[in-house]
């Protein structure tokens, strides 16, 4: 029984450490805004779209190690300049490390 309790405590501690590495950040955080703005621009390039970045609604970033890259999840407000319609989009951006280019792994329009 004691062994089970120790395993449970270790498991809960590890889960909390993993969850604490994903932090919700201020929507004015420069890295979050940069990731959101970059995601809209990258989506435009890949899809010949004309979205105009407005602002970040919500943003999270998760780092693997200090100085190493990370993953950004952002919800942005952007306007389709062709249709003159503003929508929310969810984007996931992977930054392998600070010396490599970012990668857009997901970009989706959220339901209105």
From TrEMBL:
Keyword vocabulary terms for this entry: Protease inhibitor, Signal, Thiol protease inhibitor
InterPro entries: Cystatin, Cystatin_dom, Cystatin_sf
Pfam families attached to this UniProt entry: SQAPI (PF16845)
SUPFAM superfamilies, A to Z: Cystatin/monellin
Annotated signal peptide: 1-22
Classification lineage: Eukaryota, Viridiplantae, Streptophyta, Embryophyta, Tracheophyta
Source organism: Oldenlandia corymbosa var. corymbosa
PANTHER family attached to this UniProt entry: PHLOEM FILAMENT PROTEIN
Name assigned to this protein: OLC1v1031888C1
Residue ranges of every copy of the Cystatin domain listed in the record: 26-110
Domain of life: Eukaryota
């Amino acid at each position: 029984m004691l062994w089970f309790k120790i395993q449970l405590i270790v498991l809960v501690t590890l889960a909390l450490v993993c969850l604490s590495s994903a932090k919700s950040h201020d929507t004015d955080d420069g890295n979050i805004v940069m990731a959101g703005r970059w995601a809209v621009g990258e989506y435009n390039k890949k899809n010949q779209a004309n979205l105009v970045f407005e602002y970040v609604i919500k943003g999270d970033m998760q780092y693997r190690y200090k100085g190493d890259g990370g993953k950004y999840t952002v919800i942005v407000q952007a306007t389709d300049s062709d249709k003159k319609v503003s929508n929310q989009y969810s984007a996931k951006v992977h930054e392998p490390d600070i010396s490599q280019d970012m990668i857009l792994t997901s970009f989706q329009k959220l339901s209105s």
